[in-house]
Design brief:
Elements: E1 19-30, E2 33-44, E3 48-52, H1 59-66, E4 74-79, E5 82-83, H2 89-94, E6 97-100, H3 112-121, H4 134-137, H5 141-150, H6 166-178, E7 184-188, H7 196-209, E8 214-218, H8 222-228, E9 231-236, E10 239-244, H9 246-249, H10 253-259
Parallel strand pairs: 3-8, 3-9, 6-7, 7-8
Antiparallel strand pairs: 1-2, 1-4, 4-5, 9-10
Helix pairs in contact: 3-5, 3-6, 5-6
Length: 267
């Protein structure tokens, strides 16, 4: 695992910071196949925590368990002192957890500002009435513009989402997630499918939005992981293989062996 350029730790929490998200013996089985196997994970508040591993290691399944899109076979998930095991995604979101997806789900014929306004309206109940006249959502316009400014998209506020290049669609998705005012932000492959320029821009953006919150992300790109993560958890065959700071994990012989021949290395 090659050391990424310009390694700069960000978001490091003070020593002794509290655990915000914790799993205990978390397990998920599919028809006899164990995708996540008795995982004990602890994410400290105010840090950026990466989940990595070879293809088929269980990263996505674990991510789906944390965000409520899958129910565990056994084990528990605790967030901010609350047992969220098996709770549906919308309930977890209302507790302050927001997730972005590997594949964007945007409305091509809605403007960027309208997307963020709709997200801001969601907690009020108005978001369910997405067909409501746009004037009802106009009350959220100032905050929507602030969020678009935060992710670098304010000049394109009136542009239809379908006209955006891929990298900017991912930035819009982040603005939508931030509209929920999350304490914990879950990012699923935030740089997947991006070119080098968009990757570097996304790294800078994640560093910016991580201020004052906790971030957990999955990514195959080790340059991204090394540039962002305070803590790296390496999964293999559904179990935690190694965990620690990037520089420690990348030199772990077990991790090097797990990645040998994998397309994940050297990106």
């Amino acid at each position: 695992m090659a050391r990424p350029d310009a390694r700069k730790p960000v978001g490091t929490a003070p020593a002794g910071s509290q655990t915000l998200l914790q799993t205990t013996a978390l397990t998920k089985e599919f028809s006899g196949f164990t995708a996540v196997n008795a995982v004990d994970l602890a994410v400290r508040e105010g840090t950026i925590h990466a989940l990595v591993g070879p293809n088929g290691a269980g990263k996505t399944t674990l991510f789906n368990l944390l965000s409520g899109f899958l129910h565990p076979t056994s084990g528990t998930i605790n967030y901010a002192g609350t047992d969220i095991t098996g709770k549906p995604p919308e309930q977890i979101a209302h507790l302050g957890v927001a997730r972005s997806f590997q594949i964007t789900s945007l409305f091509d014929q809605m403007s960027l500002r309208e997307h963020v306004e709709l997200a801001l309206a969601s907690p009020t109940g108005m978001g369910r009435q997405w067909w409501s006249p746009s004037r009802k959502l106009a009350v959220f316009a100032p905050r929507a513009m602030e969020l678009l400014e935060q992710v670098g998209l304010a000049p394109q506020a009136a542009v239809l989402a379908g006209a955006l290049p891929y990298g900017q669609k991912r930035a819009l998705e982040l603005a939508i997630a931030l509209a929920l005012e999350p304490r914990l932000l879950l990012l699923d492959e935030p740089t997947a499918g991006m070119g080098i320029e968009d990757i570097d821009r996304t790294i800078a953006l994640v560093k910016q939005i991580a201020a004052g919150r906790t971030v957990v992300f999955v990514d195959h790109n080790m340059h991204v992981v090394g540039s962002l993560a305070d803590t790296v958890t390496v999964l293999q065959a559904g179990k935690i293989l190694a965990e620690g700071p990037y520089d420690q994990v990348r030199n772990d012989e077990r991790v090097v062996t797990a990645y040998l021949g994998s397309a994940d290395v050297g990106h």
